[in-house]
């Protein structure tokens, strides 16, 4: 592995940094975007029960709001429940924007890192090719073995950049799809909850 990195030259280090960032962002998003942390099953019914028994005080409201994104939205539904439905939905849309921003955190960085990786690899290849051909002009006569070795080393960065970019872009699309699914789930839960409290 060390020989592989050394052969790729200086551009292998930013590529290694990109690979570490992609892994870190992916682990962080995988943990944070668990359904139980965003839209836990049965939370709406639990809150309805607490409301019916008049058991939601300020402390309970803060705990529920911090528990999950759904809890945050439902507590805001209760907070603005006396508003006309149109105004209530407008308030919840504002809060939903905050939730969406939170869900999409680091997603742009993941996509950007995956996108620039093959470009860094290509830059490394171009620089390597220039070096290989410059070396030929400085020697008397062309050495095919030397040229082949130089080109081989130059192409390592492109290969490594693509090796990083492909899974990075796949993970980016996966998380985008998961966020859309979670937002739809939240919208459904909140809409049903508003139907009950805003009759």
Automatic annotation (TrEMBL):
Record domain MotA/TolQ/ExbB proton channel: where: 81-183
Keyword Plastid found: no
Location within or outside the cell: Cell membrane; Membrane
Domain of life: Bacteria
Pfam families documented for this protein: MotA_ExbB
Any GO BP: protein import
Keywords on record: Cell membrane, Membrane, Protein transport, Transmembrane, Transmembrane helix, Transport
Residue intervals passing through the bilayer: 6-27, 110-134, 146-171
Membrane topology value: Multi-pass membrane protein
Location (main, coarse): membrane
Gene Ontology cellular-component annotations: plasma membrane
Stated family: Belongs to the exbB/tolQ family.
Protein name (Swiss-Prot/TrEMBL): MotA/TolQ/ExbB proton channel
Species annotation: SAR86 cluster bacterium SAR86A
